[in-house]
Amino acid sequence: MSFEGPWPYIYIAIAGWLATDFWRWSGVIAGNRIDEKSELLNWVRAVATALVAAVIAKLIFFPTGALESSPLWLRLGAVLAGALFFFFGGRFRQILGIAAAIAFLAAGLALTGA
What we know:
Blueprint: H1 7-31, H2 39-61, H3 72-88, H4 93-112
Helix pairs in contact: 3-4
């Protein structure tokens, strides 16, 4: 078997599509029947929020890669700057929060030389 040309990528794309498409459509069909105020959906939201919070906490307290050399105060400051811009950002608060956190972290990394 030759791994030259586009065929390996086409195979990966088709295999990935076949493996996930069934579950996507199952989720759409099941999601249309769930009441938005049900306890099940509240639990799903709580679990999803907890997972996102855990990933963010891991990135802050146990970083890898380029963040590993940055000081803890810088990572916490970036989170605080992002949160402030998110809460007081007005209409574009999500974009402003993300951009502020990235800008704060990038500036801090440049200034500290980390």
